Amino acid sequence: MVVGIRTRDLRKTYNSSPPFAAGAGGFVSGALGHKRRKPPKPEIVALDGLSLDIFPAEIFGLLGPNGAGKSTTVGILTTRVRPTSGQAWIGEHEVWKKQVAVKRLIGVVAQRPNLDFSLTAREILVFHGAYFGLGSQERIQRAEALLDRFKLRDRADQMVRGFSGGMMQRLSIARAMMHDPQILFLDEPSAGLDPQTRLLLWEIIREYNHSGKTILLTTHNMEEADALCQPLGTPQELKASVPGGFLLRLRFGRHSPELLQRFQTRVGVREVRATDHHGADLYTDRGGSLVPEIANLASAAGVELCDVHISEPSLENLFLHHTGRSLRE
């Protein structure tokens, strides 16, 4: 069985309490004993009409800056967050109508490890298998296989409170795979990991996907997205959507609107965006050959050019073009 993910017009709003300050919140008695009405709580829109089609056996990358709604989306799809409106399906099951059926099909790895520190690594895996109704022999065999695959055999009988962050992350993913879910949700799986551990996880994720499983991951790591995902077109197709394909990030003593307008007239410059009073991004058809012209224009305007950084087509450039800021900000 292969299972995909589908959402239609998902919307989620949160109402947060107003900040604590004098006169804000609570009831205050005036001179005549009247009660002051509480101010309305602000509405925060986390998702606004999200529609997705994630095909079975696809690795789908969900990218966006902090606050873009990635965790809310994962929360809805994994039955932890109830949407304000819209619908979501895991396979044929609508998430908020068939929660038990959905939970049997999914495995979830949270951004921060949520392991039971009073158990050993082996016990965590075996108990998780029991939650999903696996027989004694089957869960022991699966636990042993996962401990080997995630390089945790030598620590299998130790309490996880002494594990490193990378070891906890490996164990968290092993636990999520213990009941062999059809869909695996990974929230920033390689955040904070050393290069060796990250490469091991990528290898395991690819193997699991090749067995016919669907994987949705959120990430701030563009290398990870490029290496693992084929989201809404291949990475090559996405990169080609960046105007010109090159990004020149310029830093000045202080630029002016007139200077940026002159840059826009240069042959090969497709788009110019000021990042602040000292920086500008130029999306261009060419890279290094454009730098002397930029330097000459800045010198003629009496503006100091302090730094030039040239990037070839990448998913980072794509993100910068659509959001105007790096994922790592």
Radius of gyration: 25 Å
- Outline the low-pLDDT stretches: 17-33
Percent strand equals: 15-25%
Average per-residue pLDDT, rounded, comes to 85
Silhouette: elongated
Helical amount among residues, as a percent range? Answer: 25-40%
CATH architecture of the largest domain: 3-Layer(aba) Sandwich
The CATH class name of the largest domain reads Alpha Beta
Query: Superfamily at the CATH H level of the largest domain?
Result: P-loop containing nucleotide triphosphate hydrolases
Total strand segments: 12
N to C succession of SSEs: EEEHEEHEHHHEHEHHEHEEHEH
CATH topology of the largest domain: Rossmann fold
Summarize the structure.
With 329 residues, this protein is of the alpha/beta class. 33% of the residues lie in helices and 23% in strands.
Q: How would you describe this protein?
A:
The protein has 329 residues and is of the alpha/beta class. The protein folds into two domains: 5-13 and 45-228, Rossmann fold (3-Layer(aba) Sandwich); 238-323, 2-Layer Sandwich (Alpha-Beta Plaits). The chain has eleven helices and twelve strands. It has helices at residues 70-77, 99-105, 121-131, 136-149, 165-177, 195-210, 222-228, 235-239, 257-264, 291-300, 315-323, and strands at residues 5-15, 43-54, 59-62, 85-90, 93-94, 106-109, 183-187, 214-218, 246-252, 269-274, 279-284, 305-311. A four-stranded antiparallel beta sheet has the order 2-1-4-5, with helices on one face. A four-stranded parallel beta sheet has the order 3-8-7-6, sandwiched between helices. A hairpin with a 4-residue loop joins strand 10 (269-274) and strand 11 (279-284). The protein is elongated and about 80 Å long. The model is unreliable at 17-33 (pLDDT under 50).
